[in-house]
Amino acid sequence: MRRLISVLAVVAAQSAVADGCPVAPDHTAALDGLYAEVQRAPNEMIARNFSSQMWELWLEAPDEPSQMMLDEALRAMRIGDYLRANNRLNTLVSYCPFYAEGYNQRAFLNYLRGDYPAVLPDLDQAIALSPRHTGALTGKALTLIAMGREDEAQPVLKEAVSLNPWLGERALIKQPEGDDL
């Protein structure tokens, strides 16, 4: 039964690839409002709610087949099945090359695997498609730090924190010498 379900999923994904992925939903107006709210938030607890709403929007795939691919990849990552997650994310990115979250999640998977050089091209693509994606921006900064490229990470990190001042990664911003906090 499990094999049959897998075969049906592959067939569905292949037919979806043949049909082409629709344009990802335009959440610009909703994200504008959420960025404004998170910047006005009086504390981290309230800001976290706005950040969660942003993630809900980013994780909304363009159609049912792409949502299925994304959801399967996320489930596989949660249980450590990186091979399956990679397969689903590769299929998603091939099917929906203009969906930023496909690249962002594949970058996250490669980050978890410690394959930092593979992370950066996907994050650059995610950021090109969604320039204010704070998850992709912080992911890029954390990857650069992990690669020992701290000086390159700082401007990216500052950009992410300028969008969402409550990001936990804000603690990684280096203050110029002589600046008191």
Give the SSE map.
Layout: H1 2-19, H2 28-40, H3 44-58, H4 64-78, H5 82-95, H6 100-112, H7 116-129, H8 134-146, H9 150-163
Signal peptide: 1-18
InterPro entries: TPR-like_helical_dom_sf, TPR_rpt
Keywords: Signal
Description:
Residues 1-18 form the signal peptide. This is Tetratricopeptide repeat protein. Keywords: Signal. This protein is an all-alpha fold. 71% of the residues lie in helices and 0% in strands. It has 9 helices and no strands. The protein has helices at 2-19, 28-40, 44-58, 64-78, 82-95, 100-112, 116-129, 134-146, 150-163. The longest helix has 18 residues, at 2-19. The protein is globular, with a radius of gyration of 18 Å. The model is unreliable at 1-18 (pLDDT under 50).
What is the overall pLDDT average?
A: 90
Radius of gyration: 18 Å
The SSE string, one letter per element, is HHHHHHHHH
Briefly, what CATH class? Mainly Alpha
Fraction in helix: over 70%
How would you characterize the largest beta sheet? none
CATH topology: Serine Threonine Protein Phosphatase 5, Tetratricopeptide repeat
Work out the strand percent: under 5%
Tell me the number of helical segments per DSSP (H or I, 4 or more residues long). 9
Going by CATH, the homologous superfamily would be Tetratricopeptide repeat domain
Give the end-to-end Cα distance, rounded to a whole number of Å: 60 Å
Low-confidence stretches: 1-18
Gross geometry? globular
Annotated CATH architecture:
Alpha Horseshoe
